[in-house]
Amino acid sequence: MKILCAVKRVVDYNVKIRVKTDQSGVETSNVKFSMNPFDEIAVEEAVRLKEAGTATEIVVVSVGPAQTQETLRTALAMGADRAILVQTDVATEPLAVAKVLKALVGKEAPGLVILGKQAIDDDCNQTGQMLAALLGWGQGTFASKVAPAGDAVAVTREIDGGLEVVSLKLPAVVTADLRLNEPRYASLPNIMKAKKKPLETVTPDALGVDVTPRLKTLKVAEPAKRQAGIKVPDVATLVDKLKNEARVI
Amino acid sequence: MANILVIADHDGASLKPATLNAVTAASKIGGDIHILVAGKGAQAAADAAAKVAGVAKGLLADDAAYEHQLPEDVAPLVVSTVKAGGYSHVLAGATSVGKNLLPRVAALLDVAAISDITAVVSADTFERPIYAGNAIATVQSADAVKVITVRTTAFETAASEGGSATVEAVSGAGAAGLSSFVSAELTKSERPELTAARVVVSGGRGMQSGENFPMLEALADKLGAAVGASRAAVDAGFVPNDYQVGQTGKIVAPELYIAVGISGAIQHLAGMKDSKVIVAINKDEEAPIFQVADYGLVADLFKAVPELTDKLG
């Protein structure tokens, strides 16, 4: 079974983002970027399925500017076999990415598509669900366990209040939650090897997909600032303040 | 004015509170509010939906196919209901059910979805947090149908009594045959779930090892709190990663958040800064966590936490 994995290049999770003064967006020049953490988990899961003999090939895909090649190389260093960059400088929305992925699924015919459950920049949590809808496939979102067996896959999902197991007919779309696995670090030899793995670049136009945003961002503002409070000298004072001043215990 | 369809999150017998938050968000858009209850034997939930203040109509799709709210089966039902009813907006609470279902509905309608809105500016313009709440985006949709999930903590709950809407039956295509429910395992822990807890006690790298976490659990049990952790504590292997509060973990907004041995990295603050009251216990008085804490205690956590637990007894 071939696995298609989608990854996104996002501002690194450790960066304190700054809103641009003209409120047009978030400052992204001279900021560290890395692979979306949920996508690392998706790639790791695909690599594990290959190591277990379930998957035969892992194709990793990203939609973004030229620099997204680095993100794809990281995925190749983790164990993906080849990469496809759908290059565009447009800030793509989930629906556009889902349409691009659908076009690639049409070409590659994977048995399983694994994505992260959400990107830590737009926080949408939509792309996997949209892709499944466009393909008419089953979806296993917020997965903490993925167990393919025969022509189906059992997916354990994180839901409010616990876990749920669903069985999906293959091919299917799965989105990874944090608990699914602990992604490996790419070793230096693997990083070197990844440089020689194939990376194909295409455009959304070539795939016949219109990636024009549907939503107009009117402004991006900073949230209300939180003020520092007081320091208390000891535990007794803390308990007293929580009981009598904040009234939360 | 076009109508608004709210998708109920329910257990067959009653509505989940998130549905009431979604109704409040819908009332700020303006228009008749209809609630769709899809389930099996869900008459009671539909009756409850019809009683919610501000609701004009209840819709009940009663079919074994909808018992477990599988999106492969429910999404086509929502789409056919939207098309038949000419709805301009589809809303649901941003619960695990809503987040799973609505993007699928949006794609079938070929419209953008708007996740986790925190404010309604107008019928086509909404505010939503991005970058884990470190920025607030105002977005405008030109799509014919707006498909929206609602951050429940950002809207009051609508009154569950006071409405007198009628319940109409609707039907959909039933089971799509793409997926099936196998089992569910709901947490039976005495301790509340992290994202829903009124009080959260979290530990960071300062805990030094996983063996020290029972100290936090003792404190949590005294407070009826959930236990969380920073990414540093998870990366160090102290606790599993489903404990993680932060940008790449769970976002919490409890009434009281107690951060123990947590420096306050950006990635962690993003997950808890909307808490009502934040307490920090840390021996490093320069730790950034003190910049957001309402009450800070500069102390050795191995002394302060047991003492705090004792004093609460």
Automatic annotation (TrEMBL), chain A:
Name this protein carries in UniProt: Electron transfer flavoprotein subunit beta
Q: Pfam families from the xrefs?
A: ETF
What's this protein's function? The electron transfer flavoprotein serves as a specific electron acceptor for other dehydrogenases. It transfers the electrons to the main respiratory chain via ETF-ubiquinone oxidoreductase (ETF dehydrogenase).
What SUPFAM superfamilies does the record tag this protein with?
Answer: Adenine nucleotide alpha hydrolases-like (SSF52402)
Q: Name one GO molecular function term.
A: electron transfer activity
**What PROSITE patterns does this protein's entry cite?**
ETF_BETA
| Example GO BP | carboxylic acid catabolic process
What is said about its interaction partners and assembly? Heterodimer of an alpha and a beta subunit.
Specify the superkingdom.
Bacteria
* Residue stretches making up the Electron transfer flavoprotein alpha/beta-subunit N-terminal domain: 23-211
InterPro entries xref list? ET-Flavoprotein_bsu_CS, ETF_a/b_N, ETF_b, ETF_beta_N, Rossmann-like_a/b/a_fold
Q: Which cofactor does it need?
A: AMP
Automatic annotation (TrEMBL), chain B:
Q: Which domain of life is it from?
A: Bacteria
| Cofactor comment | Binds 1 FAD per dimer.
What family name appears in the similarity comment? Answer: Belongs to the ETF alpha-subunit/FixB family.
- Which GO MF terms are attached to this record? electron transfer activity; flavin adenine dinucleotide binding
What InterPro entries would the database entry show? DHS-like_NAD/FAD-binding_dom (IPR029035), ETF_a/b_N (IPR014730), ETF_a/FixB (IPR001308), ETF_alpha_N (IPR033947), ETF_asu_C (IPR014731), ETF_asu_C_CS (IPR018206), Rossmann-like_a/b/a_fold (IPR014729)
What this protein needs as a cofactor is:
FAD
Q: What is this protein called?
A: Electron transfer flavoprotein subunit alpha
Q: Which CDD domains match?
A: ETF_alpha
According to the entry, every stretch annotated as the Electron transfer flavoprotein alpha/beta-subunit N-terminal domain falls at 4-185
UniProt keywords, alphabetically: Electron transport, FAD, Flavoprotein, Transport
